[in-house]
Amino acid sequence: MEGNFSAPAQTMTVDGVLTDFDGTIIDSTEAIVKHWHKMGKLLRVNPEVILATSHGRRSIDVLKLYDPSLATPEYVSHIEGLIPKEFGHDAVEVPGARALLDQLEAVHAPWIIVTSGTRALVTGWLDVLKMPWPETMVVSEDVSEGKPNPQCYLLGQQRLGLPKHADMIVFEDAPAGVRAGKAAGFKVLGLATTHGIEQIREAGADWIVRDMESVTMESYESGKLRLRIVNALMYALHRATLRQSRHFKPPQIHTEIMPLVVPGMMGQGGGEDKTNSWMSKLAGKTLGDSHSETSFAKKDLPKESRIIESGGFGTMDHKPDRLNVHLGDDGTVSKVTHG
Questions:
Q1: Which residues have C-beta within 8 Å of that of residue 77, sequence separation ≥ 6?
Q2: How many CB atoms lie within 10 A of CB 172?
Q3: Angstrom distance (rounded) from CA 70 to CA 73
Q4: Which of 15, 20, 206, 289 is the catalytic position?
Q5: Is 173 assigned a catalytic role?
Q6: Which DSSP category does 7 fall into?
Q7: What is the per-residue pLDDT across 147-202, written as a single tens digit (0 to 9) for each?
Q8: Cα–Cα dist 49/46, whole Å
Q9: 50 vs 41, 44, 297, CA distance in Å?
């Protein structure tokens, strides 16, 4: 995990805690991967295609993409309820999560789970891992639209019995969830447990930490919860590091050119015209801290490709044709040429 997680300790006072579940309290990544591989066979869809966009989204919304006939609350509840039973040994606690929830429970502080999972999934995992239960929760069945729509977090605040002007903090690991929390008007602490730092930062997280060990409760008095955050990402230093990476000039490469590796663009379904069309969409984009998976809409990218981070450079993770990305003085792309 890149980044300097050594920011000075901070304290904040809130009225309540809204926490995501998977990736924040538990990590069931291995179980979910096995689940979607199983579902991929049923749907006759490459499970890797499903997994590329499923994290942080409701299963009912994922199924709508591949087989709308299965996208019913009853079916989704059934298949998700099987996950803890079939793959229970593949989930673990996120470090620090149990300790924090125990602290909140001990003083009856207001906290609630707000998740894209079904009630059957969440309660199944809470039973298997023997984690603290909140008095109430918001699950997939409770909302008409999933994250990044803020509906779930606003409902969570309401179910805690707190007024609209209450100060809330959201714990989230997925960019969609971070955006949901911010859209609700709340402070968001992002966990770099399942996604890259840049994805969480670009989604708008107010802090980024490695896991829940960075968060402890200091006190709960007169309805006010005082939390301490340690070892958060040092944003200023992180941005400076990315800027240095972006302007780093490897030996024997022209000082205003950085390679952007793009796979499968030449001679496939459109050839030169398709390549030039995609290249033109890079104009004005910034490499480095703004160049990540979330920087481009899916329609702007070749279907079989995705952007990954590599030392501050934007690269593709397949065998490439090479393009040269020319940067202007402000760090944005001025033009793209064939290498």
A1: 118, 119, 120, 141
A2: 29
A3: 9
A4: 20
A5: no
A6: P
A7: 999 999 999 999 999 999 999 999 999 999 999 999 999 999 999 999 999 999 99
A8: 5
A9: 11, 11, 17
Q: At what angle do helices 29-43 and 47-54 cross, to 10 degrees?
A: 130
Rounded CA separation 118/95 (Å): 23
Q: Give the pair of three-digit tokens for residue 313.
A: 């450079």
Q: Is 289 a catalytic residue?
A: no
- Residue 40, classified by CB atoms within 10 Å of its CB into exposed (0-12), middle (13-18) or buried (19+), is middle
Q: Determine whether 215 is exposed, middle or buried from the number of CB atoms within 10 Å of its CB (0-12, 13-18, 19+).
A: buried
Q: 285 vs 173, which has greater pLDDT?
A: 173
Q: Is the pLDDT of residue 25 over 80?
A: yes
Sorted by sequence, the CB contacts under 8 Å of residue 299 that are 6+ apart come out as none
Give rounded-to-5 percent helix, strand, coil for the chain.
40, 25, 35
Residue tagged active-site, from 15, 22, 206, 289: 22
Q: Is 241 helix (H, G, I), strand (E, B) or coil?
A: helix
CA distance 170 to 68: 31
pTM: 0.66
